[in-house]
């Protein structure tokens, strides 16, 4: 991961001049400031600090010093990603888009570069044959995902979710426990299954039963007067996605290693709760010290709330941009894997504020986590993430070009620089509600295939 260097300026001549013309207290202050010689990469030090001026008084130098110091503080990013807010993302000139009507699978497939992975770029003048092969692979992948979705629907798993009739863990009782124990004895392998899917559904059947066992643990914990902590929801979600072929290491390494990234001369540190890596190294693929990232996941124990309840008081202090929510409304087809939609962008201070969505703090924290892993993403010009709030799943994407990524880290990305990077997220979908689960099957299966392909 590349890091940016602080810019050092030679200020020895300035120090010798200023020590002659200023009182002792001012000499110490100007010497300390000049000795550091550090300024943001995207700005130049004031000319008065680069050249000595015999006519300049102590008060003028103090004004320059205080203005540089206040500007540095105002542009300073929190060093911990857990402290980032929506305003910090906006200050980085990243556009924030709430896709209230876009289904998660459409968010993954409606991009022109989707389907390409790092290391799979085409030559500048790639042939028609190569373009046709790329399109053929894309169609085959979508057909495979749709076929798996159809067989999952006939496996009995959705019937299990429907029978649970989830509202909250506090409302479950002994009858729910008995239903779950009944399903533990059932087979979740569909009938008349093609041979190519036998191994996939053999694992599917095992993981569904592991999911039921963890689900029972959470219910019994509440029935005994306990509380479900964040780590339990983390394990429940990880057990859920394992059903569809996704794998993480939280079973034997529950804490993801903290990493750092230098952005605008500030070293920021943090780690998501779960990272899903690409495990298999294909023939001819560049070998790297670390695996490519398929998905970044953050887990919270609180339910998502409507925008009016989640907005932080600080967001109103960041200017006109923070007062507006950018919403993309699209007319979606009935198929969960359809990518045909017509969308338009609207701006409104009240639009969709009654819909549950991730909070301003979660927008800042999760976008920061995606930024931390952007250069390790398996996807070209994108890194994908999921925010889990109890059993509600929000799918997110941070999209930008490599050039925008470098500019952003160096503090050179301006609001007027054409198309800006974007952080896009959907509304939450509850994986314990049958109708909402159906919208998550395609994306989760797709991520599972990407981990292994």
What does this structure look like?
With 453 residues, the protein is an alpha+beta fold. It has 2 domains: 14-70, no CATH class; 86-333 and 341-452, no CATH class. 41% of the residues lie in helices and 15% in strands. The strands form 4 sheets. Strands 3, 6, 7, 9, 10, 12, 13, 14 and 15 form a 9-stranded mixed sheet that branches. It has a two-stranded antiparallel sheet with strand order 1-2. Strands 4-5 form a two-stranded antiparallel sheet. A hairpin with a 2-residue loop joins strand 4 and strand 5 (266-270). Helix 1 runs antiparallel to helix 2, helix 2 runs parallel beside helix 4 and helix 7 packs across helix 15. The radius of gyration is 26 Å and the shape is globular. The model is unreliable at 1-73, 119-124, 312-325 and 330-350 (pLDDT under 50).
Layout of SSEs?
Elements: E1 7-8, H1 12-21, H2 24-36, E2 38-39, H3 47-50, H4 58-74, H5 86-91, E3 95-99, H6 104-109, H7 128-153, H8 157-164, H9 174-183, H10 198-223, H11 230-242, E4 259-263, E5 266-270, E6 274-277, E7 293-300, E8 305-306, H12 307-310, E9 325-330, E10 343-348, E11 356-357, H13 360-372, E12 382-389, E13 392-399, H14 402-410, E14 422-426, E15 429-430, H15 434-452
Parallel strand pairs: 3-9, 3-14, 7-12
Antiparallel strand pairs: 1-2, 4-5, 6-7, 8-11, 9-10, 12-13, 13-14, 13-15
Order of helices and strands: EHHEHHHEHHHHHHEEEEEHEEEHEEHEEH
Rounded mean pLDDT score: 77
| β-strand amount | 15-25%
Taking all Cα atoms into account, the compactness measure Rg is 26 Å
Spans of 5+ residues with little confidence (pLDDT < 50)? Answer: 1-73, 119-124, 312-325, 330-350
The structure class reads alpha+beta
**Helical residues, percent:** 40-55%
* Total strands: 15
């Amino acid at each position: 991961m590349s890091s940016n260097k602080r810019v050092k300026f030679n200020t020895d001549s300035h120090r010798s001049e200023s020590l002659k013309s200023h009182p002792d207290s001012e000499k110490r202050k100007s010497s300390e400031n000049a000795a550091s010689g550090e300024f943001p990469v995207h700005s130049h030090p004031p000319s008065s600090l680069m050249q000595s001026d015999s006519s300049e008084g102590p008060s003028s130098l103090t004004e320059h010093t205080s203005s540089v110091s206040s500007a540095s503080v105002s542009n300073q990013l929190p060093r911990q990603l857990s402290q980032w807010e929506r305003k910090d993302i906006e200050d980085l000139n990243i556009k924030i888009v709430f896709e209230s009507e876009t289904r998660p699978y459409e968010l993954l497939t409606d991009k022109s570069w989707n389907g390409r992975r790092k290391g799979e770029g085409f030559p500048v003048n790639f042939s028609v044959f190569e373009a046709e092969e790329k399109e053929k692979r894309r169609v085959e992948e979508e057909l495979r995902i749709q076929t798996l979705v159809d067989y999952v629907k006939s496996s009995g798993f959705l019937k299990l979710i429907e029978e649970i009739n989830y509202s909250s863990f506090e409302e479950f009782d002994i009858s729910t426990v008995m239903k779950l124990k009944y399903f533990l004895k059932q087979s979740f392998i569909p009938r008349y299954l093609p041979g190519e899917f036998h191994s996939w559904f053999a694992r599917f059947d095992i993981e569904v039963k592991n999911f039921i066992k963890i689900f029972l643990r959470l219910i019994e914990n509440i029935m005994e007067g306990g509380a479900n902590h964040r780590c339990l929801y983390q394990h429940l979600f990880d057990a859920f996605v394992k059903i569809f072929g996704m794998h993480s290491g939280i079973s034997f390494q529950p804490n993801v290693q903290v990493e750092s990234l230098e952005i605008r001369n500030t070293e920021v540190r943090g780690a998501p709760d779960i990272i899903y890596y690409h495990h298999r190294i294909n023939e001819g693929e560049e070998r790297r010290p670390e695996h490519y990232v398929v998905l970044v996941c953050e887990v919270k124990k609180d339910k998502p709330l409507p925008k009016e309840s989640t907005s932080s008081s600080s967001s109103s202090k960041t200017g006109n941009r923070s007062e507006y929510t950018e919403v993309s409304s699209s007319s979606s087809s009935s198929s969960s894997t359809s990518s045909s939609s017509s969308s338009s962008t609207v701006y409104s201070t009240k639009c969709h504020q009654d819909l549950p969505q991730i909070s301003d703090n979660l927008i800042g924290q999760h976008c920061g986590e995606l930024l931390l892993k952007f250069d390790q993403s398996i996807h070209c010009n994108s890194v994908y993430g999921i925010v889990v709030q109890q059993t509600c799943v929000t799918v997110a994407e941070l999209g930008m070009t490599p050039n925008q990524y470098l500019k952003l880290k160096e503090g050179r990305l301006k609001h007027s620089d054409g198309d800006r990077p974007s952080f896009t997220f959907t509304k939450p979908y509850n994986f314990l509600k049958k109708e909402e689960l159906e919208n998550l099957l395609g994306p989760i299966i797709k991520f599972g295939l990407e981990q292994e392909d």
